[in-house]
Amino acid sequence: MAKKSAKKATRQPTPPAAAARAVVETRPAAVPEPAPAMLRRNPDKKHTINDIARLANVSKKTVSRVINESPFVREETRTRIAEIIRSTGFTPDPQARGLAFRRSYLIGLVYDNPNAPYVINVQEGALGALRRVGYELVVHPCDRNSPEFLSDIRQLVGRQKLDGMLILPPVSENNTLADMLREIGCPYIRILSAALDEPQNLVQSMDRQSAAEVAEHLAKLGHTRIAMIIGPTTYRSSQERLEGFSNALADRGLTLSPDYIAEGAYTFESGAACAEMLLSRSPRPTAIFAGNDETAAGVYRTAYLRGLRIPHDLTIIGFDDSPLASRLCPSLTTMRQPIRDMGRLAAEKLISKISRTEGPSIAATTVFPHLVVRESSGRPTS
């Protein structure tokens, strides 16, 4: 009996854990199949980067490169590690990660802009790119005209230990700020309407060319009495759009009269006030190009109160193609600017700079808005 028991005992199946270890030791390429299943049996366990490296049979540094989307990993290895990360539910420990790489994994976003939809769209685009590589965004409104502006930004970088900074217009137009960030070694990307920096530091929108497209659209409709509500003259975007629009009209034999130019603030209220002034001119304009969609909405209100029909009596063009544009009645013709894409591109470009994965020179990152023609465009009737 004793012999039979001993013999029977030697025929017991190998425990699952031992079998899994055998697979790891003898067949590294097959690890991704059994390893995630083994770890899923312990849902309360918090997996570490060392676990992922062991299961993938690679170094911890290779796992880190995959997490940070480094290009210096073979696609086969990247796929294997990504599958293990997904199956195990592994998430990097931000504190441990920061200590290992001497980073905070925090990016600052600095703005001074009354146009809330613009800021929100840039923010959402940036967050989508940053969170894919484990970064978070520190949003910091500021007053660019304050005497403490530069010292405030310097303190922000030091206090939060920011790894880099995204700068929105009009703050991004401040060259002194860019000089200060270079001085303290803080990588940055500026979203701008003009090439005020080296290409590797820019995501540039083509505001001048976009305004020219609006001018061409209005000229083709047959408008000759055309007005424009610009943004604050201290904004570079406002200057670019005004010059692009007026020059394009001149190319078509049309003149943008100074009497038909009003300075707004990229807000609904300023749009309504500027429209009141412009529509009081005699003769009144038959078309108004507004600085953004919020401004255009203000023009709608004034036109309604004056009993003007859109577009029969007045054509209105906006800029940005915010959600508001398609909700107005009639719907607003506007220049679609890919604001979320701009935020995403700026974040991706900044991460490349921080990770030092860019080449010796990065080409300019440029976005091209285009005109979306809706119901507010029409031919002049007077």
Automatic annotation (TrEMBL):
Keyword Transcription regulation appears in the UniProt entry: yes
Biased composition (Basic residues): 1-10
One GO MF term: DNA-binding transcription factor activity
Alphabetized SMART domains for the sequence: HTH_LACI
Residue intervals of the HTH lacI-type domain: 48-101
Keyword Plastid applies: no
UniProt entry keywords in alphabetical sequence: DNA-binding, Transcription, Transcription regulation
Annotated spans, Disordered: 1-29
Bias kind Low complexity: ranges: 17-29
Superkingdom of this protein's organism: Bacteria
InterPro entries associated with the record: HTH_LacI, LacI/GalR-like_sensor, Lambda_DNA-bd_dom_sf, Peripla_BP_I
Name under which the protein is recorded: LacI family transcriptional regulator
